[in-house]
Structures are given as C-alpha cells and as structure tokens.
Amino acid sequence: MTVQIFTSVVNRPQFLELQVKLFSKFLENDYQFHVVYDNGIDKRVLKEFENVCQNNNLILHKADDSVMHKNPSTCVSKVVKWIYDELILKIYHDDICIIVDSDMFLIDKFNVENYILEYPIAGIPQYREHVKYISSQLIIFNMEEIIKIDKNIDFMDGTIENQHVDSGGATYYWIKKNNINFKEISIVYPTHFNDIELQDPSITNGINFEIHGDIFLHYRAGSNWFSKWKENRDPLIEKEKIFNQIMDIILDNDNG
C-alpha cells in the first residue's frame, strides 16, 4: 500500500524541502507526497514550490477558488475539505492518507500502517467544553475503514453548540453521529531540545513548539498568518534560528 501525504502551502518553500527530507528519512512506508495551493499564493513563491515539487517527484495540485477566505482558520478548513472531497474520496479512497500542516515535521521513525491499524482515523483532539473534535493540523485516515463507517466528514470551523471551534471543528458531528473511537495523538510543549531553550517568550512570543505523538515537531504559525503571511521568513527571527539548529541535528543524526 502507498501512503498518500497531503499538505497545503502558501509560503516558505524551505519548509516543504524539510518535510520531504524528513519523511524520506523516517517514514517506513511507501508514500506519495502531494502539495496543494490556491490563487492566494504569491506567483514568485509558487515558482519556488514548483521547483521543489519537480526536484522531488511531488504532485502539485491547485485547489479551486472556493477555498479562499480572509479568515485563516476558515481558509485552512476549506482547503482540508477540498483535499478530502476532491482528492482523497475521489482518487485515494483505498489508501491510508495523511493531511499535515506545512509546518509539521516528522522527527522519528514511523510506520503509519501499524499506527492506524485498529482505528478508522487518528488525530489531535481539541476540546471546547463538551465539544470534542479533531484538529486539522495532523489527520491520518484509514480510508478502507472510514468508507465502511461513513465517508461524509466535514472539517469546517465556526460555532458548534455555542462553542467556537477552529479548523476541523465540524468533525465533532461525525464523531458523535458514528460513535467514533479515534486514535488520539498527544501534544506536549517541550522546554528544551538537547540544551536549546524552547520556551523563551522573547524568542517565541508565546508561539511555542509542540511535539505530537512523540514523532512530529510542530513549528506553529509557520505561515505567518498572524503577521505578513506572504513573507518567506518568520518575523520571529530567533525562533527560526532555533528551529534550523534542531533540523540540522535531526537530519545529521544517523537514527533513520
């Protein structure tokens, strides 16, 4: 089985290059990597993404204009929904599929077939009072099982039962309707990587790194949605420097 990996991009093609290197180093399954963009992307940056895709045999997809929205959370929700409806359901419905944020990086050995074997879906749980849903940041779909249960999954943000939910919030309805027991991917906020301090607010501005399931490093806000989102560099310059140090260490490590 070939695992299908999907990420959506808007800027920072260097992140995509790192994702490619890390999946190649650590993922123990055959896989195909897909990159999705929309008309909101800067044309010069798109050319850089096209080069990364061409050099690494990635499949580049253009989402339709319906995904564009001024609200970053809504835009992400629409892109995830488009990937699921137009690519996963129509083409890759027999495969294990992963949707991953563009600033999420695999940092240890990972066999996704074994990981998802007994579950229809895996993801990061989010809670808003009684509303429990799966964040769109990282979702693993066991499509053969999902098709058996209910293929109709919504990923939109908004308000659910008087609770504000972020991207992926509408998965609450699917989970509730079908009594889904999904594999929960844990979140921790590391204070250090080796001897590198990771939670200095003067460096991270409170947007601290996350580790998911002990195997994914989440940069967080990597698209600069809170600032000048078309910029290729992070306005938190020192955070980017720390991240580059971490990536150099992980890529140079012989474990993988």
Explain what this protein looks like in three dimensions.
By secondary structure, the chain is α/β, with parallel strands linked by helices. The protein has a single domain, classed as Spore Coat Polysaccharide Biosynthesis Protein SpsA, Chain A. Helix content is 33%, strand content 25%. The chain has eight helices and 15 strands. It has a seven-stranded mixed beta sheet with strand order 3-2-1-4-7-6-10, with helices on both faces. Helix 1 (13-26) runs parallel beside helix 2 (43-56). The longest helix has 17 residues, at 72-88. The chain starts with a strand and ends with a helix.
* CATH fold topology: Spore Coat Polysaccharide Biosynthesis Protein SpsA, Chain A
Level of helix content?
25-40%
Q: Indicate the overall shape.
A: globular
How is the quaternary structure best described? single chain
Mean pLDDT: 91
Structural class: alpha/beta
Number of DSSP strand runs: 15
Determine the N-to-C terminus distance.
21 Å
Query: Main sheet: which strands, in order across?
Result: 3-2-1-4-7-6-10
Strand content: 25-35%
Q: Flag low-confidence runs.
A: 225-230
**Shape-level CATH architecture:** Alpha-Beta Complex
CATH level 1 name: Alpha Beta
Main sheet summary: 7 strands, mixed
Total helix count?
Answer: 8
List strands and helices in order, with pairings.
Layout (H helix, E strand, L loop, with lengths): L2 E6 L4 H14 L4 E7 L5 H14 L2 E4 L9 H17 L7 E5 L3 E3 L5 H5 L4 E8 L2 E12 H7 L8 E3 L2 E3 L5 H8 L4 E2 L2 E2 L3 E2 L2 E2 L3 H4 L5 E3 L3 E3 L18 H16 L4
Parallel strand pairs: 1-2, 1-4, 2-3, 6-10
Antiparallel strand pairs: 4-7, 5-15, 6-7, 8-9, 11-14, 12-13, 14-15
Helix pairs in contact: 1-2
